[in-house]
User: What shape does this take?
Amino acid sequence: AAAAAGAIVLNETRQGYGACVHRALREALKFDDTELTLLCEGDLTFRAADIEKFLAYIPHADIVNGSRIVEQLQERDTQLSLFMHYGNLFAGKVLELKHLGMVSLTDVGTTYKLCRNAALRDLMGALNPQINLEFNAYFLDTALKNGLRILECPITFYPRVGTSKGGNVNNRIATRLGLRMLFGIFIDWKRFGHE
Assistant: This one.
């Protein structure tokens, strides 16, 4: 469907969320006709109308991270349960504490983000595509370690089209993923790079 609509479609053969996101970013950086890369999932949870918000924030940042944690902007019946909502908020505050004074974060699990290509090119060599479902938190942590400026932007969030295989399947899986994120933030992301 994407190819029929005129999109450039690539097949990432390596399994895992991190490999897919890393490939998408690498492919985006091959284009020299833009200074920005917008990362988004294709499950219709995010909408193009929010791009204008990202563009309003990007003059002040290297990365604008979308935040799904504004309840008034969440549709009913999304995969972001109340448990996951507050877990994400907690993990964001933990990452904020780690990089005190550099960032304010409420959502470390969202894919929807706008990046300056110059900053992204510098960051790509530091990112490990083998890190899987924790990749978004890892991406933000690595960007902050590398001195990049990150701002959050409230975004709308809609019910997913299709079935999730990620951390939002149920609260047990979300808890495991959240604990892995906290381990990576506090101790070492390298442990997750070889699974």
